[in-house]
Design goal:
about 525 residues; five-stranded mixed beta sheet; ABC transporter substrate-binding protein; 19 strands; alpha+beta; six-stranded mixed beta sheet; 17 helices
Length: about 525
Amino acid sequence: MTRPPAAAAAAARRGDAGPALRVQLGEPSAIDPGQAFEHDGALVAGLIADPLIDCVPATGRLAPAAASAWQVAPDGRSVRFRLRPGVRFHHGRPVTAQDYVYSLSRAVRPETGSPLAVHLAPVAGYDEVAAGRAGTLSGVRALGEHELLVRLSRPFHEIAAVFSQRVTAPVPAEVVERDPPGFARRPVSNGPYALAGELRPGEGLALERFGDYYGANAAYPDGGRGAAERIEFSVFTDMADARQAFLRGALDVTEVPADAAARAGAESGAALHSTPNPMVTYLAFPVTVPPFDDPAVRRAVAMCVDREGIAERRFAGMRPVAHRMVPSVLDPDGGPRLDLPHDPATARRLLADSAVPPPREPVRLLFNGGQGHEGWVGDVARDITAGLGWPVLPLRLEWPDYLRELPETSAMSRVNWAVDYLSVDNALHPLVHGEAVGDSNHARYRGAADRLIDRARATADPTARRELYRWAERQVLDDLPYLPLWEGVLHHLVDPRRVRPAGPVTDVFGVPVLRQFAVTTETGGSGR
């Protein structure tokens, strides 16, 4: 089911809109840059908000964006930013360093409820603000209108990468505080696009190019200005419906789930773009809940899952099996591997040796529906049942219910983790560090990896730091709170007749570079 953005219909009635870029969107949980944590919300937030630092789409290299320069201290305990003059909010006011003091502190405040706040945990004063004992991060200080200092509570030499995440983008206090619920529906920031109306559940939304955008984001050859005058997002709760809309010519860009990518390619030819991205799909074990508190049980369950067979059957080989916690695109030159064969007979012996009694009730496997997971989740459940004799019950939830259930679930669960910024730290710390329990560490795992990750953060030498992260990953793979299933590959259909990209179609995260998509007036539709 889908509904087009109401703002788009209004523009069509006015007859004053040029050709709009029409994009599929899942129902976003939030589009506020301080809260947009999942794929759909982040897609919108990336257009309405520029961080201090951005990533070059083709390479991921960090480049100056709203900051013209930055410097991490030699001891890794602070980072200083020089802000660009002339950056403005969508309502017209210039952005100053004080706006970052407010915005970063706001993201951490408990009343904001941001799932992204944990990225700012290294900043001095985080614990006090997160607990509600203070309103402002003590480590963030404006040294003038265009000079910002961020002090850290402990060394973190990859801190600059954190400031490429949209949670660090500025928002104006006077707009937020006047009407917080209204701001959530129509956030204001400093990006190349502004919302044309409020976000309403199920109705989609439209963005219009912001005329006073500063246009000096060095990650883009044109300074980051949007190529399309308008971007219209239509919400689809089922990706199969979105693919059909694309084939009819009603969409220019849509994501395609992995289990439908081969068919989409046959239907659409050159319109399909498949991009490896820094994401891994995992089977998460609730390690504080028996019998999954026993590493031998976790290993036995993992050995029953035929990851290669499911990948071939469900994804036509278009998603490689994951052998690491860390996506290979982040550390392509080596690292620890999980060499765990599909061997149900050995799994049964391992379970017998551990003397763990079988579960009295069916074991639940939690996943979100509507995104193409049903087939492979069912395969995983059947593999475990066939291997161990345990009844495994897949539990399909809608996205909002899944998000509510995930942090405290006693079930096994499907977990996708795509890094928020290009750092091995962001592939490990949020999933396995004890500090992230209750946030993104859905296995609720605590182990020796904590100390290794902390040491890596404090290590200035990049080679030595990489080795420490690898040791931490080895520890996690031995403990197996998560079974890595498949590496991330994102698939998108982009209409080659209507869309003219000014650069790569997708970035290193596998996300379409929408701000560089110009739109022609040709009739869309790529079906045959």
